[in-house]
Every structure is written in C-alpha cells, then in structure tokens.
Amino acid sequence: MKPSTIILLGLAAMTTSVEAHGRMLTPPHRGYMYTLPQFSFFPSNYDDDGLSAGGIGSTKKGLHGICGDRYSAATPRPHETGGKYGLFPKYGAKAIGGCYAPGAIMDIKYQITANHKGYFEFGLCKLNGKNDAETEACFQTLSQPDGQKQWFLPA
Questions:
Q1: At residue 44, does pLDDT exceed 60?
Q2: Burial level of 94, CB count in 10 A (0-12/13-18/19+)?
Q3: Are 67 and 75 a contacting pair, CB within 8 Å?
Q4: Is 84 buried (19+), middle (13-18) or exposed (0-12) by CB count in 10 A?
Q5: Which residues, 6+ apart, have CB-to-CB distance to 34 below 8 Å?
Q6: Residue 49: partners with Cβ closer than 8 Å, 6 or more residues away
Q7: Hey, what long-range contacts does 126-129 have (CB within 8 A, 24 or more apart)?
Q8: CA 111 to CA 69: how far, in whole Å?
Q9: What's the rounded Cα separation, in Å, for the pair 5 and 91?
Q10: Confidence class of residue 2 from pLDDT cuts 50, 70 and 90?
C-alpha cells in the first residue's frame, strides 16, 4: 500500500459529522412546548435540542422530514401535524405556540446548547384546518429586517 493511500485512509477515518444542538424558544417549537406551563399536555421530549433530520448519515440525497425529523420515519413524523408532538389536530388552538399577523416582525429566540457553527433559515407554513399537513411547498421563507435569509451563528 502506498504511503499516500495510508494517509488518505487515516484522514477519512478522522472525519466526523456535525449535528445541531439548539432549540427554538420563541415561538416555541413543538418538541420544546412541554416545558411551558400552558402546554403541560404535550408529551416530554428530552432531546428537544437535537433535531437534525436523523443526522447526516440518515438523510437521503439531502432529504429531511419537514419539521426536522428523520426522513425515513413513518408519517406523520413526530414533530409534524398529527405526530407525537404535532398536537393541533387533537387540541386545536390550545396547541399553537405563536400567532403572527401577515407582515409582522417576529422576535425569534433560539437557544444554542452546543455551537457547531452553521446558520438558520426560518419559514412559515399556514395550515387552514386540523387535517392540513405541512409540505415543503407550503413554507414561505422569512427574511430578516436587513433582507438576509440566513442567520449565521457566531464562532
């Protein structure tokens, strides 16, 4: 075996994947809502800061669940409408974490529990009824007041 092959194999063995660690506090994401008194009917989610579509090894050609779950999970996936934490069909308005008027400025708060760098993009999907489900096409990308669509984490 050539020395260059050994070095290449050694470098390949040292590569790692990065998975996100953070949670959306305002508006609260579905997996975090159980921590708030008004949402005590939500099931506990002790990994609410680890939504990563199942990790880089689980995504298929870049695909991921609409609400951050593993793409290959049975639908509705846990964080989607009708899933374990997507309780809108059962509880209606009592299971909504935030409501905003069209064109309003949203104050979004996120807690980073382990900074792996990267960036955030935010989008909203309006569901008109309890039987509606999120789709990629439904989401409208949000912009920051300066027009940027990505918010980069500080190093």
A1: yes
A2: exposed
A3: no
A4: middle
A5: 40, 42, 43, 44, 45, 48, 85
A6: 21, 22, 23, 111, 113
A7: 127/81, 127/88
A8: 19
A9: 59
A10: low
Q: Which helix (H) or strand (E) holds 152?
A: strand 151-152
Cis geometry, peptide bond prior to residue 43 (ω within 30 degrees of 0): no
Task: Show the tokens assigned to 30.
Answer: 């579905």
Tokens for 48, please give them.
């609410």
Placement of tokens 């159980």 in the chain = 34
Report d(CA 51, CA 86) in Å as an integer.
14
Query: What's the whole-model pTM score?
Result: 0.78
Query: 3-state class of 43 per DSSP?
Result: coil
Give 107-116 pLDDT, tens digit per residue.
Answer: 999 999 988 8
Residue by residue, DSSP assigns 112-137 as: EEE----EE--EE----STT----GG
Question: Tokens for 126?
Answer: 């309006």
Q: What Å distances lie between residue 130 and 88, 91, 92, CA to CA? A: 6, 9, 7
Amino acid symbol at 110: Y
Q: Which residue in the block uniquely carries the two structure tokens 């506090």?
A: 25
**Listed residue (35, 30, 100) closest to 65, CA to CA:** 30
Burial of 120: CB neighbours in 10 Å, binned 0-12, 13-18, 19+: middle
